[in-house]
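Researcher: Next sequence.
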Amino acid sequence: MFLLKPLKPLKPLEPYVPETLSAYDLSLEDWQAWLKENGEQSFRAGQVFDWLYVKRVGSFEEMSNLSKALRDKLTSRFKFVSLKEIARQESKDGTVKFLFELSDNNAIETVIMKHDYGNSVCVTTQVGCRIGCTFCASTLGGLKRNLSSGEIVAQVVQAQRLLDATGERVSSIVIMGIGEPFENYEAMLKFLKLMNHEKGLNIGQRHITVSTSGIVPNIYKFADENMQINLAISIHAPNDELRSKLMPVNRRYPFAELVEACKYYLRTTGRRITFEYALMGGVNDAAEHAQELASVLKDMLPLAHVNLIPVNFVLERDFKRTERDDIFAFQRILEKQNIPATIRREHGSDIAAACGQLRAQHMESQ
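Model: Next structure:
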């Protein structure tokens, strides 16, 4: 049997605190405190929030119900726009992918996806990724840094501004872009609360999904947050040996530990977990893999759901997509074992929509 040596748990990353905060880095409570400290009335915080998230203005100068002195003070203290559009790709299916430049010249991706039920925005939480999944473009070039909460927020605001032109709105958010959200936990949590705030974009918690590769300690932590945010786990294999080959994070947080953390989440929240499973031809898509996966998940019913993902082609990776008939066969095996399973609809197949691809192309061109 092929065995991989376990690795030590990942050393926690330092949160990224920009030298100059952006307007989106502050919660309503932060604004109230800052205004009070600077000799202003705290109710102005609600006005600032309204300008940022409801009217979605592009500068402090446009906040016309604030005094000129306060607008000047805000302009001198905070950055307003932290994202610069480098590239935009639009798919025939309506998917729009952005490549944004940050203030330190790093680049990130954000995607708008069109669904029958509304518009979903997929956001990035890190510049690069250190998880090292062998089938993913996001990890190419390694990890540069975490994003601030404001840099994550700004992605949704930029997407909403584009949708404003056609009278549409962001109806849901998926935190599945570049990076591991649970490695940038505090910034992610602040982002979630900002998105859900009734005075902000007011996106319901049940319309937000966060995906993790299995940072076990923070799955327990997230369970205890008592939120209604949807949780997805990138699983991609039904056992330790195969998962460790595909996802090195499994050597730090072994499969059995991940399964126990998932069961704790289910007991604590009573909410369903979606298990994401990218199908790779000849690697993890055999009938025995489906049977083994069903065996792992049966104790989590009825709160376990599998989302089967035909793997995206990545030039730098050597994986091929599972044949269509084999995808359906894998799904049928799960369903015969009473494991609900869906097949993810593809978005942006005619553009570089796979996570990290557009950024990888940009890095190569530099």
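Model: The chain has twelve helices and twelve strands. The first helix runs from residue 28 to 37.
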